[in-house]
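Hi everyone, sorry if this is the wrong subforum. Our group has a chain we'd like a structural model of before ordering constructs, and none of us has done structure prediction before. Sequence below.
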Amino acid sequence: MLLKNERGFTLVEMLLSVSIWFMLCVTLLPQLMLIITERRNTDIYNIGTQLLSEELQKEYNGDSSVMNIVKDGVSYNFQKSFNGELQKWELCVNWEDKLSKTYERCGYINGGE
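Answer:
Right subforum, don't worry. Here is the predicted structure as C-alpha cells:
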C-alpha cells in the first residue's frame, strides 16, 4: 500500500521547480530586454522623423529653426546647408539611439535664405 504525503512538497521537488523557473528566466530575460531596447529605438526614430517634419514645415513658412532639441533624454541636432547639386536647402537631423547607433534623416526646402 502506498503512503500519502500529506506534508506538501519535499525539498527535492521544490529545488527542481525553482531550477526550472531559473532556467526559464535566464533564457527569456535577455530576449525581453533586447525587445524593449529595440522598441525604444523605434520610438526614438519616429520622434526624429516627426521633429524633422515639423522643422521643415517651419522653414517652409519662414520661421527660424531650432538647432538642438532634447526630447526624452535624446539630443536631436539639426543642420541646415545648401545642396548645390539639387539647388535646394537641405535640413538634416542627427541623433544617437540606445545602442549608440547614429542616425541621420534629411529633407529639402525649395525656399529659404
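For your construct planning: The radius of gyration is 27 Å. The longest strand covers residues 74-83.
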